Amino acid sequence: MIKLIVLDVDGTLTDGKLYISNNGDEMKAFNVKDGLGITQAISLEKEVAIITGKTSLLVEKRSKELGIKEIHQGIKDKVGVLNNILEKYNIDYSNVAYMGDDLIDLAVMKKCKLTGCPKDSVDEILNISNFISTKNGGDGAVREFIEYILKSENLWEQIINNFSPTNQ
């Protein structure tokens, strides 16, 4: 059973493009379907963590909106950070799902039980992923991965029931 879902940001939760205004402000687009998937996984007592190589106030803000407690930015050693998270929650790699898209995710993905990636990931990530989304990063790939996890654990019906009106 997956207890922890770990997500990269750029290229996974976003399209990987860096939008910078004339004033130097950074912008990112997040898919609301990914957000709903994340909040529903959390509602089923799955831990969700963000481990990303870049640092952005936007990522912190969006993560907090979704209820993600583990937000780790500016990380080059993703394995080390994930080891600390696993120790904190008393979880091991056999209960971890990780979604990433680029070489910085390679070492950590090789250690996780379940790995996923957007369809526009680099070949090295595509080659080791258990799940390859039909969507690109930022276009609902994370939602698709979360649905895959919850369906494989027979939990998706609970989510559907949360959104279905009760018959009276």
Summarize the structure.
This protein is α/β, with parallel strands linked by helices. 38% of the residues lie in helices and 15% in strands.
Which residue ranges are poorly predicted, with pLDDT under 50 across at least 5 consecutive positions?
none
Which percent bin holds the helix content?
Answer: 25-40%
CATH class of the domain at 1-91 and 100-110: Alpha Beta
* Radius of gyration from CA coordinates: 16 Å
Number of extended strands:
8
What is the string of helix and strand elements?
Answer: EEEHEHEHEHEHEHH
The name of the CATH architecture of the domain at 1-91 and 100-110 is 3-Layer(aba) Sandwich
Described by its quaternary structure, the protein is single chain
Overall mean confidence score, pLDDT: 96
Give the helix tally. 7
Q: Record the strand order, biggest sheet.
A: 5-4-1-6-7-8
Q: Can you tell me the overall shape?
A: globular
Residue share in β-strands: 15-25%
Considering the protein shown, what is the CATH homologous superfamily of the domain at 1-91 and 100-110? Answer: HAD superfamily/HAD-like
